[in-house]
Design brief:
By secondary structure, the chain is α/β, with parallel strands linked by helices. It has one domain: TIM Barrel (Alpha-Beta Barrel). Helix content is 37%, strand content 15%. α8 links the parallel β5 and β6. It is globular and about 50 Å long.
């Protein structure tokens, strides 16, 4: 699709933004979502909870030094223009909600309002852990002073048109930012004047044929050609860049050479090779997936090694409970991955 059509599609979606339907919001609240303003939300991460109660930490802690108990899991947009079959999120149409989720926000809230709202909701969530006798109180006190935000909860955060101002507002508070995008919003990426601390792109498939099958795209922006444009732009972004692969047996866990080609185009510093989890929305029978399609540890490590061998990357680490392997671009990236992101 011509670039001007992609730009027009992005602009239209970013301007037409009705609020989340009441019934959908009610369903999401039952699932643990806390809404902030018209279109943003947060939800406690299992690893944030586990880090408070059991001393656990997520793969971001192991790979990059993130303190899970001080991390906000959030999004600036509930809606998404993809309906990836492996995604754990609720996809409105599958649940009977008649709503164009690509237009998720109503009028766009100001960045400061979103940042303050997300911090306050995070504090309200962790307040409930204070009375739990299993909770490490030192960590609990620190959890009330968040140091990181992962803009990865649900939807496509780059739908929000004031992302640069939002990132700056977090950084001004000493909070590092992890931004995860699905690789469709080329113009939104071009528009960034403030970079996130770490920029992720979800890589859903290794080739054109599988891309359409896996993403089940909802609009004209979500094409393989546009994804290629996105990766070319991504390769020059002046921040730490990460590919995230979510692999499903007998679906997209194939064509290691295809993934290596994408790595050469996008030039990420790190590649996370992660096994799909049969949870949440992924269990909806309309997706056609099964429990048996979850890769095992040896499968993930074996496939990660294939990609590494073909791309020249290094298999640097593995996080067992997340079933994710980490590839690094080179020894320098491997040595630099554990850094201080914030206070």
């Amino acid at each position: 699709m011509p670039a001007e059509q992609v730009a027009a599609a992005e602009t239209l979606e970013r301007e037409q933004s009705p609020n989340v339907p009441v019934d959908l919001e009610r369903t999401m609240r039952r699932q643990g979502y806390h809404f902030v303003g018209r279109h943003s939300a947060t939800k406690i991460c299992n690893y944030t909870s586990g880090s408070l109660k059991r001393g656990e930490s997520c793969y971001k802690h192991r790979f990059y030094g993130i303190r899970s108990w001080r991390c906000i899991q959030a999004t600036t947009a509930i809606g998404c223009n993809l309906a990836c079959s492996f995604c754990w999120r609720t996809i409105p149409e599958e649940e009977g909600f008649k709503w164009n989720e690509m237009n998720a926000g109503g009028k766009w809230d100001e960045p400061e309002k979103i940042v303050e709202g997300l911090i306050n909701e995070h504090r309200r969530i962790v307040t409930g852990y204070k009375g739990n006798g299993k909770v490490d109180m030192k960590r609990w006190n620190e959890s009330n002073d968040p140091a990181h935000v992962a803009l990865s909860l649900t939807g496509e955060p780059l739908f929000y048109p004031k992302m640069s101002q939002l990132l700056k507002a977090f950084h001004d508070r000493g909070i590092s930012t992890f931004l995860v995008t699905n690789g469709t919003m080329v113009n939104a990426l071009k528009a960034l004047t403030v970079m996130p601390t770490q920029l992720y792109v979800s890589v859903q498939a290794p080739n054109r044929e599988l891309y359409g099958k896996v993403t089940r795209a909802k609009n004209l922006m979500a094409t393989w050609d546009n994804f290629m444009r996105f990766l070319s732009l991504f390769s020059g972004m002046n921040t730490r860049r990460v590919f995230r692969l979510t692999l499903v047996e007998n679906l997209n866990m194939t064509d290691a050479e295809g993934y290596a080609d994408l790595i050469r185009r996008g030039r990420p510093h790190y590649v996370e090779v992660k096994g799909f989890a049969y949870v949440g929305g992924a269990r909806n029978e309309k997706r056609g997936l099964s429990y048996g399609q979850m890769p095992r540890k040896d499968g993930i490590l074996g496939f990660a090694k294939k990609i590494a061998d073909l791309s020249g990357y290094i298999v640097a680490d593995y996080h067992d409970s997340s079933n994710v392997a980490l590839l690094c671009a080179d020894l320098e990236a491997a040595g630099a991955r554990i850094i201080k992101f914030a206070r």
